Each structure stands twice: as C-alpha cells, then as structure tokens.
Prior knowledge:
The protein is α+β, with helices and mostly antiparallel strands. The protein has helices at residues 34-44, 83-87, 110-120, and strands at residues 23-27, 49-54, 57-63, 105-107. The protein is built from 3 helices and 4 strands. The chain has a 4-stranded antiparallel beta sheet with strand order 1-3-2-4. The longest helix has 11 residues, at 34-44. The radius of gyration is 18 Å and the shape is elongated. It starts with 22 loop residues before the first strand and ends in a 6-residue tail after the last helix.
Amino acid sequence: MTDAVIPVDNKCSRCHGSTCCTYMTEALGPLRSKADFDHVLWQISHEHIEVYRDESGWYLLVRGQCEHLQSSGGCAIYAQRPQVCRDYQNDWCEYDEPAETHFELHFRNYAELLAYCRKRFKRWDS
C-alpha cells in the first residue's frame, strides 16, 4: 500500500504529526450529579482517557492514532473513509492552535478528576 498524496492547498499537507488523527473526542452531555462524575471517574481510570470541558460542554478525549493514518499523514482508506472524517472541516484545526487552548477544565487522570469532584461536591466522600 502506498501513502496517499495530500493536496498542497489542504492544511493537512502542512501539518506535521497529523494531530487530529491521533485522538478522538466524544460528547458526554451535562455532568451535574455525583453519579455522573462517578461514572466519568470510572472512564478516566482507563489508559489514554482524558476528560475536558470547553464552552460547549464536557468531552471524553481518547488518545490513540487512527489505524489508517499513513507515515505521510495521509489516510489509507481516504476514498472509503467514515462519514465523520468526510464531514470534518479544517477551517480551524490544531494546525492553527492547540485545542487545549480552549479547555476550561482538563483532567488527565483519576486523581485530578477526583480532586475536582471533592471540591465541587463538599460531601463527596460521605
């Protein structure tokens, strides 16, 4: 299989590391109760899982490179790529600025999120 060529006018052709193809996010919905946060504590206890909040809500961040990412940064299944990839617009992307710049809260592990839960819910441990 040969690496796909990315058009020069596409920002992806100038990106080193294909950042957007090395993680995925999933909206969590509103987190309000101790039970909501307890569930997220379980999720963040797993490898490569982080949680963040930005202006639009809470998200699960899963670090892991797409299996179709080629060494050139191209997609090995470009013609058959999933719809979410087809819909992706890179008008603004991590080539322009790291996504973390817009995180209001960012938890990389269980201990960080647990400390937040203990501050948010004064009776967390009771």
